[in-house]
Amino acid sequence: MAFNIELPHVGESVTEAVIGKWLKAPGDRIEKYDPLVEVTTDKVNMDVPSPASGVLTRILAEEGETVPMGSIIAEMEAADGSVSGGEGVSGATESASSPAAGLAGRIGTLVQGANVGPTGGEFSDTSLSTGDEPAARSPSQAASAPPASPSISRQKGFSPVVTRLAAQHGIDLASLVGTGLGGRVTKKDVLAAAEKSDSGAGTAVQPQIDGVSSEDQVITPSPIRRLIANHMVKSMSEIPHAWSAIEVDVTGMVEWSAANRDSFESEHGVRLTYLPITLSVVAEALKVNPRLNSSWVDGKIVLKGAINVGVAVAAEDGLVVPVVHAAAGASLVELAGKLSGVVNRARSGSMTLDDVQGGTFTLNNTGTLGSVWGGAIINHPQAAILTTEAIVKRPAVISENGSDSVVVRSMMNICLSFDHRIVDGAEASAFMQSVKTGLEAITLSSDLK
What we know:
This protein is an alpha+beta fold. The protein has 2 domains: 105 residues, CATH 2.40.50.100; 239 residues, Chloramphenicol Acetyltransferase, CATH 3.30.559.10. It is built from 10 helices and 20 strands. A hairpin with a 2-residue loop joins strand 12 and strand 13. About 18% of the residues have low confidence.
C-alpha cells in the first residue's frame, strides 16, 4: 500500500517546520517508528518516525525547506502492499502521520526564547541568570518539475526540488557528487555547482541589495533564524505591547540565599539560586492577578487555569524557554528541582515536547548580561513577560522611626511587557506590586520552604 508521509502536528501554535537532515534515503527498508527525518519547529527539534514498516520510495521536502505542518514530505510503500516505480504523490491511496505523543522530541532552538531576549551564564550576586538552573511553502509536487532523466532520478533519489534547480541552472545531476545521506545530491550541492558555473563564466551570483556597498558583509539567515524573525514579527504585529518597570529592594533575598545556599544544597541535593525564589513569588502573584496569566483567543480573553511559567535559558543551539508546570503552590525545593531538571535537559538537548508546551507566562532575565532596564517581546500568545534585571548595590533612602537615612542596598529592576488588549496599566501595576511585596518580604530570618 502506498502512503503519503505527512509532517505531524505537534501543537496548535506550531504552524511550520524546517526540514533538517533526512535519516533515510529512497529505497531504504524502514521499520515502523524508525526515525525518518530531523525537523525543527519554533518549539522543539524532533525526529519524525515512520508511520509504518516498508520502503521509502520518494522524498518530497528537501533539507532546509520550510513547510507547513501536515504537509506531505515523502512517500513510502507499506510492507503489506506494493507500488510501481512510476507512481507519485497522486498515486498514493492513503495518508499517514504520527501523533505528537509518539515523537522523540529534543530541543535545538526556541523561537519563544528568541522573543524574550538573551539569558545565560552562571548565577552571581548581580543577576537572576538561569545559569545551571533550573511565508510558508508547500512541498514540491512531482508533476511540477519532472526530472530530465527518470532512471537516474529513481536510482539516486533526486527530489523534485533538486531536479527543478538542476533544470533551471543547466546542471547535469549525474555529474554531481552528493553530500547528503548515502551520497544523495541535495539542493546545496546543486546551488554550489550553479555558483561555480556562474563564477567561471564571470557572472556575479551575489544578489545586489539596495544600500549595501562592496565593503559590507551580507549574511543569509539560517532557516532557524528566519523562523525566529517571523515569530518575533508575529508577536509584535499581533500583540499591542505596553511596558512598565519598578525597582525592588532584594537585600533580604540576597542575604537569605547566601546564608542558606550550602545547607539547602546539602539537604536537598539541588543548587539554590535566586531564580526558584523569584519564580515562587511570581507564581503566587499570578494567582491573585489572573489577567496576566491569560491569552487573547478569537476576540476573547482566556484566563488560564494552570500557572505554567516558562524560563528563558541560553542553550548551546540557541535561546530556549522550558516550562515549569504547576508553579503556583509548589515548594521552594520542588521549584528548584523542576528548574534544575528542565534547564539541564535544555542544555543537553534532551528536552521533550512536554518541556516546552503549555506555558502561560514567561520569566526572563537579562541581568546576567549587565542589563538594568529593558522591554522584552511577549511570547505569543501569552499576555505578558516579566524581566528581572541585574542586582546592583546602590544607595537608598530608608525611613525608620520618623527619620530618613541613606544606606547601601541590593536593588533590582523588574520590567513587565504586557498585552494591552487584555491588561491595563492599573492591572499591570497591581501585579508588579505583588511581585515587589513578595520579594521585599524576604528577610534573613524568613522560613522559605
